[in-house]
């Protein structure tokens, strides 16, 4: 990588080669992936890389990364509540740890440590339970107390003055942040290099189903025949599933985030407070990247609101009173496909050849590598990998939920 950088530096201002190419839309592909986010692109990459399946089209109605993958606050962690969740996200963290090498592209993964604050006795109990489940699964997490929190994060107020004093925290050292665009571009580049066709500005408008199995898709640029369709459209996933006649237990909510003006580096860890509905990290540029829980109403709107900004500013000041002079630079929103148990839905559906990788809510970016890799395995082998089995669509009918609300809501 450093050799490449040196070569580019010596090349002066010559434009860099394109990361992915444009192709004519073929009228047939072995696999059609709907959604050019990190999930769809990761699946395309692993199909090509691991299984040599390259007759693949990724269809994206806008530009790649224009959905949640380019709007998230980039938190990566595996300190979930259920053994199924912890194992699944742990594989993703491990894949992220080697992703820069695998994609030959610096995705800037910074494992700086993740703290989930507890402000009540009930929250301390949940953090203790999470720490124990994490440790049993071999994930590095532990409960810590205010003195150690202060050491890890000197500017935080651990006194008993605030309305909700900090009683403890779940500390997860491998948790970190990453450059989300780089993940999207890296997967796109490597999928393209292996022969995958990425079609931007190509909206899917219909799914063709005959005798219970998928036969193709309708798009704004014409019809494509295929026997395998993957729905990886996150916040829009029910609109696509409806086209195939598949009902998903998913409701779409907006989620907002914002950044401040850049400050000198002072925050080395990620801080999350479920009780205060706020979380924050400091980017490499010095901006504070902040977010909260989803908006309290279902909607497809991607507009920011003043109520969010006022709420987050107040809660941030409860944690970091010294930030009272800091200005917010910009805010935005994305769409989140929320499931009843706060876990994703991956795998087969009642329509043969129509697969889903959805239900990613506020926490799906961290799962892009593992879901991409394991969905590729399912497509290539026809067998559901053990890691995905708990997240099957049928779990809702079988009353076998994977309850992650205590670890997935504000924490992302
Ligand atoms: C503000 C915010 C903060 C977040 N923070 C975190 C975080 O810190 N950590 C974390 O792990 N997760 C986080 N998330 C969640 C995360 O962003 C998503 O779960 C994840 O990016 C989903 O990725 P995806 O590839 O499945 O979907 P997306 O990236 O949303 O891609 C889906 C794509 O499908 C396309 N599409 C939709 N309909 C059609 C159609 N008809 N035809 C063709 N294309 C279509 C869309 O244009 C979109 O580009 C956050 C989300 C938001 C909004």
Description of the molecule:
The protein is an alpha/beta fold. The chain has helices spanning 2-10, 38-51, 83-97, 99-103, 121-136, 146-152, 180-193, 237-244, 306-319, 368-381, 405-408; strands at 31-34, 56-59, 75-76, 114-118, 142-144, 168-172, 176-177, 197-199, 204-210, 213-219, 222-225, 229-231, 251-260, 270-273, 278-282, 288-291, 328-338, 345-347, 354-358. The strands form four sheets. The chain has an eight-stranded mixed β-sheet with strand order 5-6-4-14-15-16-13-17. The protein has a six-stranded mixed β-sheet with strand order 8-2-1-12-19-18, with helices on both faces. Strands 9-10-11 form a three-stranded antiparallel β-sheet. The longest helix is centred in the N-terminal third of the chain and has 16 residues, at 121-136. The radius of gyration is 21 Å and the shape is globular. The structure holds flavin-adenine dinucleotide. Flavin-adenine dinucleotide (FAD) binds next to helix 2, strand 13 and strand 17. Flavin-adenine dinucleotide (FAD) binds at residues 34-40, 59-62, 66-69, 71-75, 203-204, 232-236, 240, 255, 257, 291, 334, 336, 360, 362-366, 412.
């Amino acid at each position: 990588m450093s050799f490449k950088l040196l070569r580019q530096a010596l090349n002066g201002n010559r434009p860099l080669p394109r990361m992915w190419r444009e192709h004519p839309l073929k009228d047939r592909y072995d696999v059609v992936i709907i959604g050019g986010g990190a999930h769809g692109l990761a699946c395309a990459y692993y199909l090509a890389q691991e299984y040599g399946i390259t007759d693949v089209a990724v269809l994206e109605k806008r530009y790649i990364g224009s959905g949640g993958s380019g709007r998230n606050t980039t938190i990566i962690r595996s300190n979930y509540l259920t053994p199924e969740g912890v194992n699944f996200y742990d594989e993703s963290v491990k894949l992220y740890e080697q992703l820069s090498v695998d994609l030959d592209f610096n995705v800037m993964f910074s494992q700086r440590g993740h703290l989930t604050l507890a402000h009540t006795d009930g929250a301390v109990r949940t953090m203790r339970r999470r720490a124990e489940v994490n440790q049993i699964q071999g994930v590095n997490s532990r409960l810590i107390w205010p003195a150690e929190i202060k050491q890890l994060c000197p500017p935080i107020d651990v006194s008993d003055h605030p309305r909700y004093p900090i009683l403890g925290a779940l500390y997860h050292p491998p948790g970190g942040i990453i450059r989300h665009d780089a993940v999207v571009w890296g997967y796109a580049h490597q999928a393209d290099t292996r022969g995958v066709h990425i079609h931007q500005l190509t909206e899917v408008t219909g799914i063709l189903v005959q005798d219970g199995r998928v036969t193709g898709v309708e798009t704004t640029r014409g019809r494509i025949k295929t026997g395998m369709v993957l729905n990886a459209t996150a916040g829009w996933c029910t609109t696509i599933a409806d086209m195939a006649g598949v009902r998903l237990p998913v409701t779409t909510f907006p989620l907002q985030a914002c950044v401040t003006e850049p400050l000198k580096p002072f925050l080395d860890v990620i801080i999350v407070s479920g009780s205060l509905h706020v979380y924050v990290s400091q980017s490499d540029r010095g901006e504070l990247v902040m977010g909260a829980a989803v908006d309290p109403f279902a909607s497809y709107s991607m507009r920011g609101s003043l109520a969010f900004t006022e709420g987050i500013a107040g809660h941030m000041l409860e944690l970091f009173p010294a930030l009272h002079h800091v200005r917010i630079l910009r805010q935005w929103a994305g769409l989140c496909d929320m499931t009843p148990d706060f876990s994703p839905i991956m795998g087969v559906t009642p329509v043969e050849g129509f697969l889903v990788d959805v239900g990613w809510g506020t926490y799906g970016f961290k799962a892009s590598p593992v879901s991409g890799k394991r969905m590729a395995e399912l497509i290539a082998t026809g067998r559901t990998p053990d890691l995905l089995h708990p997240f099957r669509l049928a779990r809702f009918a079988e009353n076998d939920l994977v309850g992650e609300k205590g670890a997935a809501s504000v924490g992302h």
